[in-house]
Write a structure and sequence with these properties.
Order of helices and strands: HHHHHHHHHEHEHEEEHHEHEHEEEEE
Oligomer: single chain
Distance between the termini: 73 Å
Radius of gyration: 24 Å
Helix content: 40-55%
Structural class: alpha/beta
Strand order of the largest sheet: 5-4-3-2-1-12-11
Largest sheet: 7 strands, mixed
């Protein structure tokens, strides 16, 4: 048996690139398929083995393969965008090529984390540096996300380490209580420490060190469970979860939302929340939809004298003239609070400059111009005013959940009873691969911020994420042709 193990280890060292590719495949599979978790554990041991035993000359490419393939699988939800019916007519072949290009380049940018990890490892102290590996790995993933934001920069974006798809922390949802110390970064660090401690014991048989380290980690886990905030009783929230396709015209949306809003108002809840980009309650500001619908929206708004209503949509900032995604919080005091989306979707809400250059270089300048004119949002730093009462929730927009620090930052700047998370997945066709990852992200965010997150969505059903890591499903009160009225209070009935 020992001879076979030595033979396998020798083969892995002789073929580090193949081993790295296999490790990346194992790690990525576990991110999108829970049953692959045992494969991920084996893959972690393999990566640790390669980092310590492979020649430094081959380590950069080996780790780039690990990070790149892991990212390719984590981002496989890109393919759920096909068919691209929300932008303009494109041949099927062009759509496939476009998605493939975005998918592979995104994974390539994130694979830079592997190169960074190789460099950090090479220049780290020689002593007990295997125990530094978890910290170096988490740091490398963060810096890889920064590289991603640089290479996908464009008008309306900014440099950030927010893009966390594929991060190792999401491999350990059973360590969710650890998120209280630092979100996905803390979970990744402690999960990797467990792997390193076990690997260290298997290779050294150092019983005392193993016992001390493992005992410390277990105490940390138990302490995390005790420190995390308990589940909180929420006010009566009515969530309007819709099923509008991207191609559904605004007039149809407005009529359907009007019907659902009227029913929601009759329930007399404390909060009514619409999904991202519903654009319903500020319709009276525009003549786009006609006077009749504008008046209807106005009447419904003012009928909600006991509810706080939250809507959002594309609008022009009155000071800068930029196009922003803005949430409107209509309070019972007739005060309107606003907050803007701070982290935008590359290729979805703004056009990365590098990608526009490539399109023009290959003769697709018309496509680049059309995209730049259509997806032209700008990120904004506007948040709910600091002096707003705690019952006015903070806003965490759809894509912002991928930033491990987003909810914590909101609560650090201004506390609120809960955080509203409006979403829209109308660009995609049931992207189940991303749904699992987003659920883990939001669980970590709620635990880290010690604040419930109340989500509501279009083409994705919202849930409630509690600070103890629990995920609560809404009770469906009424079903409509274009969605459902759901609530945290199952006893609600229409008057």
């Amino acid at each position: 048996m020992r001879n076979k193990l030595v033979s396998v280890c020798g083969w892995l060292i002789a073929h580090p690139y193949i081993a790295g590719a296999l490790a990346g495949l194992g790690l990525g599979s576990a991110l999108v398929w829970p049953l692959a978790t045992p494969l991920a554990i084996v893959s972690l041991f393999l990566v640790i083995f390669l980092i310590e035993r492979a020649p430094l000359t081959v380590l950069p490419v080996t780790l780039v393969l690990v990070f790149g393939i892991k990212s390719l699988i984590a981002l496989s939800w890109f393919w759920s965008a096909y068919p691209i019916s929300w932008l303009f007519e494109l041949a099927a072949s062009t759509q496939y090529i476009s998605i493939f290009f975005y998918w592979t380049t995104a994974a390539l940018w994130l694979s830079s984390g592997g190169l960074i990890l190789a460099l950090l490892w090479r220049y780290s102290p020689l002593g007990y540096r295997r125990f530094l590996l978890p910290l170096l790995w988490v740091l490398a993933e963060y810096l890889g996300a920064v590289v991603f934001s640089i290479l996908t920069a464009g008008p309306g974006s900014y440099i950030t380490g927010a893009f966390s798809f594929g991060h190792v922390g999401y491999l350990f949802p059973y360590l969710t209580p650890i998120a209280v110390w630092g979100g996905a970064y803390a979970v990744g660090l402690i999960g990797l420490l467990f792997a390193v401690v076990i690997y260290d014991y298997l290779t050294t048989k150092h019983h005392v060190r193993f016992g001390l380290l493992l005992g410390t980690l277990l105490v940390l886990v138990v302490g995390s469970v005790m420190y995390q905030a308990p589940a909180k009783t929420l006010p009566t929230v009515v969530a309007i979860n819709t099923t509008f396709l991207a191609a559904t015209d605004q007039e149809t949306r407005q009529a359907a939302l009007g019907e659902m809003m009227e029913a929601a108002v009759n329930m007399q809840p404390e909060y009514i929340i619409l999904p991202e980009d519903a654009r319903y309650l500020y319709a009276y500001k525009s003549d786009e939809l006609g006077a009749e619908m504008a008046v209807e929206a106005w009447q419904i708004l003012h009928a909600t004298n006991s509810a706080i209503v939250i809507d959002s949509g594309r609008t022009t900032d009155e000071l800068t003239g930029d196009i922003v995604a803005r949430a409107f919080v209509w309070s019972t005091s007739s005060t309107i609070y606003t907050a803007d989306k701070q982290y935008l979707v590359p290729q979805g809400e703004y056009m990365p400059s590098l990608y526009a250059f490539v399109l023009r270089f290959v003769g697709l300048g018309v496509v680049a111009d059309a995209l730049s004119e259509t997806i032209n949002y700008s990120a904004s730093r506007r948040v709910v005013a600091e002096d707003a009462a705690p019952q006015i929730p903070n806003m965490l927009f759809c894509f912002e959940s991928v930033s491990p620090l987003a909810a914590k930052t909101l609560i650090a700047n201004r506390s609120s009873d809960f955080i509203v998370h409006p979403m829209s997945h109308s660009w995609f066709n049931e992207p189940r691969v991303v749904w699992r990852q987003l659920e883990t992200m939001l669980r970590y965010q709620a635990v880290f911020s010690r604040t419930p997150i109340v989500s509501v969505g279009n083409e994705i059903r919202g849930q409630v994420y509690q600070p103890n890591g629990d995920v609560e499903t809404y009770a469906t009160i009424v079903t409509f042709p274009f969605g459902t009225i759901d609530s945290t209070n199952s006893s609600l009935v229409t008057n």
